[in-house]
Amino acid sequence: MNLAQEKLDLIAKVIKNDRKFSNNEDLYEDFFNETCRRSLSIINVVSSDAALEGYLRKIATTSILNVLKDSGRLRRTKTGFSSTNTISIEEDSFSNNYSQVKISYKSFTIEETPEDIIIRKDTLKQIASCVLNADKDEPEKQYLQIYKLRYDNGMTQKEISEELNLSQSEVSKRLFKLTEKVKQSFR
Fold it and tell me: How far from 184 is each of 20, 134, 143, 180, CA to CA, in Å?
């Protein structure tokens, strides 16, 4: 290589200022050799020192990336390059790499305090009383039966409408009216 010492120093400076150089100092000679090899064709053609430094930065970055890839310290990802020491979370990485991983958690229950139990029982008594009174006041609306099907049996409005031979909109209206009555009883 017939490069002047000042140009060699410039290459060394550019390499050491590259952000990928840190934590990879042991590969400095490889970075330097690759950068010198790639810059031979332009080093004597470019006359401006600023332009030469700009070209050398680009060449050094490319050279460093190639050396890091070749040494197994860098891998290409969808978003660019990342160190092999970091784990990237990509859209399909969980389905491809972690599909066989099973995670289990130890479950625990939080005991209810006596106050919580009393409040829950009182609330349920008030709701039951309200539903029974609404059903007693308007037996044709079948509030108690709709309540049981919806909240005890977990049926959908459509299933309730089929069970009681009502339209779904009628079941919806009755559930809404019953909910309003229960809300009123808590005021």
Answer: 68, 12, 16, 6
